[in-house]
Amino acid sequence: MKKSFSWSIGMVFLFFVILVTAGALYYYRIQRTKIIDDKQKELQAIVNLKIDEITQWGNERIADASLFRDNLFLVSEINAFFKNNQAGEKKELNSYLKSFLENKNYSGILLIDADLNLRIEYPEKNNLLGGYLKNFISKPGARKNIQITDLHKSEVDSYQHLDMTVPLYRITNADSLFNGFVVLKIDPAKVLFPLINSWPVPSKTSEVIIFRKEGDSLFFFNNSAFRKDAGLTVGLPAHSENNLCVKAASGTTGFTTGIDYRKKNVIAYISKLRNSPWTIIGKTDVSELGPVFLRQKKITLAFSLLLLFLAAGLSEFLRRNNASRLLRKQLESERKYRTTLDNMIEGCQLIGFDWRYIYINDAAEKHNRIAKDKLLGNRYMDCWPGIEETDVFQRIKTCMEQRIPAVLTNRFQFPDGTEGWFDLNIMPSNEGILIFSNDVTLPVQTRKYNELGQEILTLVNRYTNPAEMVEKIIEAIRNSTGIEAVAVRLREGPDYPYYSTSGFEEKFVKHEKYLCNYDDDGNLVTDVNGDPLLDCMCGNILCGRVDPSKSFFTDGGSFRSGNTTELLRTTTPSDRLARTRNRCNSAGYESVALVPIRSGNMTLGLLQLNDRRINYFDEEIIPFFERLCSSIGLALERNEIMKEITISEAKFRKIFELSPLGKSMTTPDGTINVNRSFCKMLGYSENELKKISWEAITHPDDIEKTSQVIDDILTGKYDEKRFEKRYLHKSGKVVYTDVSTYLHRNTEGNPEFFITTINDITERKIAENEIRELNSELENRVEQRTKQLMDANRELESFSYSVSHDLRAPLRAIHSFTSILKEDYNEVLDNEGKRICGIIEDSSVHMGKLIDDLLSFSRVGRSEMLFSKIDMESMVSTIINEIIDPDLRKKIMITLGKLYSVEGDVNTLRLVWINLISNAVKYSSKKEHPEIMIGSRKNKSSVIYYVKDNGSGFDMKYIDKLFGVFQRLHSQKEFEGNGVGLAIVKRIVTRHGGTVWAESGFESGATFYFSLPLVPEHA
Amino acid sequence: MEDYLAVEILLVEDNPQDAELTIRALRKNNLANNVLVAEDGEEALNFFFCRNKYSKRSFDNPPRVVLLDLKLPKVSGLEVLKTVKSDERTKNIPIVVVTSSREEPDMKEAYSLGVNSYVVKPVDFDQFVKAMSSLGLYWLLVNEPLR
């Protein structure tokens, strides 16, 4: 896999190399072409530039020439000179030409007349006209325009030059007459070659060549860069095949390559000069491109190499990436391993062959309890003085020297006296040895203490004798923990002397046995609460004088110090809360723990643990001893209680047995205990009752009820229940009882037994039944009476009805027929007869009135009352107006006082007022000045109304009869009336919940009062 | 007697004295020509509904007024009133309760059953005559019956 991957990477790389090489070559080729192309373009541009420059130059020359041609004054002056040939004129022209030449780059000026004779030559040389020029100007064309001759030499001018011919015309009136030529001589070497040969970009081999073919030879216009005398002087054979100029001469234009006159390879651009036989070539040696190519080659090569290098790197990377995956994994795991080591819960330390610490991880640092900086680099045995004597060191040494690994659990004693338990794994490593450590102090201790706890619990349960129990416990603690001295103090009167000790010196125990202090008189020293003042730290613990904010006290009320010397040095007596005797310390005990033995809130004593070794036991184990002590406390307490229970059980049994109330104890499975009273109650013997089920002695009707109670108590609906229940006496007689039953549950809440108290209430029940019967009889009677009363009422009603209806009919008959008798037999009847008839009539009318009154009285009692707020004042004034006729009204002085409003039945209260007022009127009517006073006053609960008159009054001794029906205190003769009015008043007021009374002095008028409640009793 | 066909006043009264006194009072004003006395409630109902001996009577010829006592043998006056007033054929016949009873329940019920008038018979004969006369005069001469 690894191999094939590398191989494929190699293949890919190879392919890539080929690709890059090919690419580079191709690139180089393109670049080369591009360079050449660029060069050619450059050449073309330059050639075109030259052509433009030459053209420009030509145009400028023609402009110069035009100065002569167009200057008519000059032309006429020249003409005048040609005609007259005067020296003055010549001189003038000469100076003009001179100044012209000073400003322009012409090598000379010729003035030639129309006959082609040279007239003036400036600067003056030989005054001869060259054959070439003479020939040129002889052509008719020369007379037309300004022209420039080709490059030529002549017999007069031996250098290659150009002539510019300017035909002169004199403008006459109608015509222009040819007047000759001005010829400007141009030396191309001076003015044109620099123009042509200048090269605008730096190049060593670039040049422009202008040439023409003449016959088989090539003539160069200009001097080349490499042959200064080439201009028109060199004729080259025009047949060399690859010669550039030959190529050009044969018509090639544009880009080309070839060999130049120097036989060098060149690249060139060829163009024809317009209107001339000349060809222009821009060329550069191919060799000049060499460095460019080289640079390009270098760049390409470098780039390719770079690519290849990258590819190689990449493939190497890929190869390594893959191939080293395992390696990397390995590395990673190594790193991980290192990190793991660092973060491991297990301690790990590396010790070199020279016994110096090389590496310690965090866990090991914790295990060592010394900062790793202090250990690293130091020798193992120097770090742990005394280690060489230990067994574990031998194992380490063996591993170091013989390379034998070891696994062991080791108890390690630290220099500070503390100890720890470690599982060690010692193994050889490259550097030396590697020790893995696992702190099992807690598990080991826990296991140890668990075992101790188990053992003590067993002891506590096994021994009921406290002395034995405590002794065994102390031994167990010593054996298990290795603590040097262990003691238990237990309460005895006010003090807590040592109850049992082990490991202490006799002298110590003797001196420290008691904690109480006695003053000089032998009295116990007590604190403000009267509790004995107990000495020393033991006293603190026993009295609960602990301050958990101090490090040597625990939350559980214990004391612990691992270094009592240090403790005494760093604390004050007030910190220690009590006068400490410090005997523990002076006896050399550095590690001391005092743990209270409690049961509930009661302190029974304490457990004392002493050891001369510093920090022999950790603070962490104190809670263990606290739990242990609470077990011991409970056990001791239980032993106490058991003692008491034995006593109280006897007492209870006595009570149970002798109780006058029936008692039974029943377990849910049916075991019954009963007392004598219960046996007596039901007529069974104790043994008989124990065999009988409860259902058998329970009244059949009460079985379900009892069963329900038992269920409810068992299911926890309630704990106890008092209920009535009937038992069956052995004789079959029913025994009524008041039963109270309670379910005792054990500490786990499981039912243990029912305690039932049975009170015989048969007699009470019988009495109750009698009363009940009596009551029900009474109720029956009341019911009967009520019915009778209702019947009576109904009868009364129908009686009243009958009276009202039937009694009046005969009365009416008596009255009517007497009237008819008087009427129809008027003549027959004598006076006496008529008088008797009258008496019959009156009597029957009176009887009718009696009947009406009686009915109205009865109606008052029966009618329904509708309560509403009553405006008494308006009601009373209305009544006064209704019942007292106006004549009488004038006579009587009526004083109407304040009448408070109350709620009442309007119809019946009207009757009250009518009766009282009409009575007052009636009984005061015989007075000369009758006076009636009506008023009211209000108290908390009622309004009292009164009607007072100054009439005849009544005798107070008959006041009982005043409000009776048909009771009258006056004769019919004195005052009419039938004794119903006040009875009605009384009835109405009573029905309103009020009272009626009256007072009178004989013959001094009467006052009638009635009260109505403010809050009506709705009758 | 067959003159019940032309009865103008029906007097329902079991007490013969009262009946006599009533007729006497009516006669004083010449109003007693066509008075028929029914002695109990049943007879009264027979008359109203043209039954038994009154079968020849026609509903089309009702009395001008009926004077009805409440305390009657067999069928009480209030029952008669209820029956007559709840029957379409008879409910328009004017009925005046003439009774000794001043009891409120009686009066209330009579009025709620649709009695046309309620008169309490006075004990005093003069007053009785006055009451009966004005009754008769009113119903026979003043009141316009529905024809």
Describe it.
The complex is a heterodimer of chains A (1019) and B (147). Chain A is an alpha+beta fold and 1019 residues long. Helix content of chain A is 47%, strand content 21%. Chain A has 31 helices and 33 strands. A six-stranded antiparallel β-sheet of chain A has the order 8-7-6-11-10-9. Chain A has a five-stranded antiparallel β-sheet with strand order 2-1-5-4-3. In chain A, a hairpin with a 5-residue loop joins strand 32 (996-1000) and strand 33 (1006-1013). In chain A, helix 8 crosses helix 9 and helix 27 (872-883) crosses helix 29 (906-924). The longest helix of chain A has 69 residues, at 2-70. The radius of gyration of chain A is 79 Å and the shape is elongated. The relative contact order of chain A is 0.03. The model of chain A has no long low-confidence stretch (mean pLDDT 81). With 147 residues, chain B is α/β, with parallel strands linked by helices. Helix content of chain B is 39%, strand content 14%. Chain B has five helices and five strands. Chain B has helices spanning 16-27, 41-48, 77-85, 104-113, 125-142; strands at 9-12, 35-38, 65-68, 95-99, 117-120. In chain B, strands 2-1-3-4-5 form a five-stranded parallel β-sheet, with helices on both faces. In chain B, 41% of the residues are buried. The mean pLDDT of chain B is 86. Chains A and B meet through helix 25 and helix 26 of A and helix 1 and helix 5 of B.
